Amino acid sequence: MIGCWHTTQMPLSPRTRPDFLLLHPTPTPRQCLEAMATAEGVDFCKSYRNIVSKAAIELPELLHLVTALPPDLVAHRVCMALDGIQIESPADGLNMDGLLD
Fold first, then answer.
1. What value does the CA radius of gyration of the chain take, rounded to a whole number of Å?
2. The dihedral of CA 90, 15, 27, 52: what is its sign?
3. Is the pTM of this model over 0.85?
4. Which residue from 1, 10, 18, 28 has the highest number of Cβ atoms inside 10 Å of its Cβ?
């Protein structure tokens, strides 16, 4: 039997769609960070200081990144953190050589 769309579970991860964060009554710091995994998610969340502050528990340099970098670069760093990629110093993740040429 072929499964119907309404019988399969759709993941409600904020990483998939940032507005899914609103479905969680008390989102965790990780869920707040997941909501910022795309440029659209960064744009969506950056005006909500409480979301950014809570996400910064998982990624301490996030507050600086949101104010200093374009949303696509912030999202890239967020994805690196979510995927477990460690950066020794935050400056290593901000190398912009050749990006603006």
1. 15
2. positive
3. no
4. 18
Q: CA dist 80 to 6, 17, 26, 33, 101, Å?
A: 33, 18, 24, 11, 24
Q: Can you give the pLDDT of all 101 residues of the chain as single tens digits? A: 444 454 455 567 888 888 888 888 899 999 999 999 999 999 999 999 999 999 999 999 999 999 999 999 999 999 999 999 877 655 555 555 555 54
* The CA-based dihedral angle spanning residues 20, 21, 26, 32, taken in that order and rounded to the nearest 10 degrees: 150
Greatest Cα pair distance in the chain: 54
Contact, 34 vs 58, CB < 8 A? Answer: no
